[in-house]
Write a structure and sequence with these properties.
The chain is α/β, with parallel strands linked by helices. Helices cover 47% and strands 10% of the residues. It has 17 helices and eight strands. The strands form two sheets. Strands 1-8-5-4-2-3 form a six-stranded parallel β-sheet. The longest helix has 21 residues, at 254-274. The structure holds zinc ion.
Length: 385
C-alpha cells in the first residue's frame, strides 16, 4: 500500500542519476522541517486477486471479498468489460450499465435506485468508475472500485470526469473515492494493451507536475503539501524501471499488473491527500485537455498526457531526446501526426492550453508563450512536422 512517510532527502534524485525524468528537489526551506509526514487521509485498501489466469476464479474471489468488506446488498454499475466478474455476486439490489455515453444526468438517474443498497460497486473501465462515483455520491453510500483496465490514475481519486450531455465536453466533479478496490489479474492481463500503456503514460506526468508545483511555490502562489508530493514521486518511481526497455505485450504478466495497480492507486492517493489533482497534473494535462477541447480525444487520456509531456520536458529544460526515447520504448505517441495533428494544430493547442485550467500555475504560464514562441517550440520539437 502507498506509504505516507518519508524524508525530504528521499524526494531528490541523487546527483548524477540517469533518470529520464528527475524529480525536483523540494524547496530548501522545507528540508529541515520534514522528518515525518503525517497524513490524515486514509488510503484505499487494495486487493489483487490470487487467481492470475482464470477469470471465473477471480469472480468467486470478488464475490467473497465484497461480502467480507460489508457489501452484502450492492448496487452494481458494470460495463461490458465487467460482465464476466459479476455473476457470482449475491444480494444484488440493482444493476446499471453506463455504456460509452454515460453522462452526469445518467448517473443522477441511477442514484435513486441505489439508495436501498449498502454500497455502489463499479466493475469496468474509466467511464464506468467515474459514473459510479457520482451514483454513490448521489445515493450517499460507499463506493467500491473494481477496475477492468489500468489506463489512468483516476481509479482511486475522488474526482469524477463525465460530460454533462452526450458528446459534450467532460467536467471534473467532486464525488467519492473508494475505500477499497479489487484488481482481477486475469481481467487486467487480458485488457487492451493500449490501456496499460496509457496507464504508464499518465504517471509520466507526475515528476513534471511536481516541477510545475515547485514553480508555483517558488513564485509564492501555492504551498507544497509534503505528503502528496512524496506520494506522487513514489508513484512514478514504481513504474520508472519500466521505462528502460521496449514494452511489448509479452511483458504483461502478474508482476507488471500489480506494480501498475499500486502505482496508479498511489497517484490517486496523492490527489486524495490534497483534494485536487495538483500533485499529478500540470502543463502536460492542460495540453491534453486542449487537444480534447479543440480536436476531440485522439487517444487514451494517458497516451495524450505522455505525448504532451514532451512539451513540459522542453520547457523545463530537461532531456527531450531521452524522454522521446522513453515514449518510443513504451509505444506511446511522440509526434503530433500520430494523433492526426499538424504543426498549426499544435500551435493552437499550446495557445489554448493555459485556459483549460485557469488558476493552476505551470511552466506554460511561466513561459507565457505567444503565437510566434509557440510556433518556434513546435518546430524545435518536431522539426519535420
Ligand atoms: Zn491524468
Amino acid at each position: 500500500m502507498p506509504g505516507a512517510s518519508g524524508t525530504a532527502e528521499q524526494s531528490a534524485s541523487p546527483s548524477g542519476s540517469s533518470s529520464v525524468l528527475e524529480i525536483p528537489v523540494l524547496p530548501a526551506e522545507l528540508l529541515d522541517t520534514i522528518h515525518f509526514v503525517a497524513c490524515t487521509t486514509t488510503p484505499p485498501r487494495i486487493t489483487i486477486s490470487a487467481s492470475a489466469d482464470d477469470e471465473d476464479d477471480a469472480a468467486e474471489e470478488l464475490a467473497e471479498w465484497l461480502w467480507m468488506n460489508g457489501a452484502e446488498r450492492p448496487f452494481l454499475v458494470a460495463s461490458a468489460h465487467g460482465q464476466q466478474l459479476i455473476h457470482r455476486i449475491t444480494g444484488v439490489v440493482g444493476t446499471a450499465v453506463p455504456g460509452p455515453h454515460a453522462t452526469q444526468a445518467w448517473a443522477r438517474s441511477c442514484s435513486g435506485a441505489a439508495r436501498g443498497a449498502d454500497a455502489v460497486v463499479a466493475i469496468g473501465g474509466g467511464r464506468c468508475l467515474d459514473a459510479a462515483k457520482l451514483v454513490a455520491a448521489g445515493a450517499g453510500i460507499p463506493f467500491i472500485a473494481v477496475p477492468t483496465q489500468l489506463s489512468h490514475d483516476g481509479v482511486c481519486s475522488p474526482v469524477s470526469v463525465l460530460p454533462r450531455t452526450v458528446g459534450g465536453l467532460t467536467e471534473s466533479l467532486e464525488a467519492v473515492a473508494p475505500h477499497v478496490a479489487f484488481f482481477s489479474q486475469p481481467t487486467l492481463i487480458r485488457s487492451p494493451f493500449a490501456s496499460l500503456r496509457a496507464g504508464i503514460g499518465d504517471l509520466l506526468a507526475n515528476p513534471l507536475a511536481l516541477h510545475d508545483w515547485k514553480l508555483a511555490s517558488d513564485a509564492g502562489l501555492e504551498q507544497i503539501n509534503h505528503a502528496a508530493w512524496h506520494l506522487s514521486a513514489e508513484s512514478f518511481r514504481l513504474i520508472e524501471p519500466l521505462l528502460e526497455e521496449p514494452l511489448g505485450p509479452e511483458r504483461v504478466e502478474p508482476g507488471l499488473i500489480g506494480l501498475l495497480a499500486h502505482a496508479l492507486v498511489t497517484s490517486g492517493f496523492a490527489m486524495m491527500t490534497v483534494g485536487t489533482s495538483r500533485p499529478v497534473s500540470g502543463a502536460e494535462h492542460k495540453i491534453s485537455h486542449a487537444i480534447d477541447e479543440l480536436f476531440g480525444g485522439r487517444a487514451h487520456h494517458g497516451a495524450q498526457v505522455a505525448f504532451a509531456s514532451l512539451v513540459s520536458v522542453a520547457l523545463h529544460d530537461l532531456d527531450v531526446e531521452a524522454f522521446r526515447c522513453c515514449l518510443v520504448n513504451l509505444g506511446l505517441p511522440y509526434h503530433p501526426r500520430q494523433l492526426g495533428l499538424s504543426h498549426h494544430d499544435m500551435v493552437a493547442v499550446l495557445l489554448r492550453a493555459p485556459n483549460t485550467r485557469p488558476g493552476r500555475f505551470t511552466v506554460l504560464e511561466s513561459a507565457g508563450l505567444g503565437e510566434s514562441e509557440a510556433a518556434v517550440l513546435v518546430k524545435s520539437l518536431w522539426a519535420e512536422v
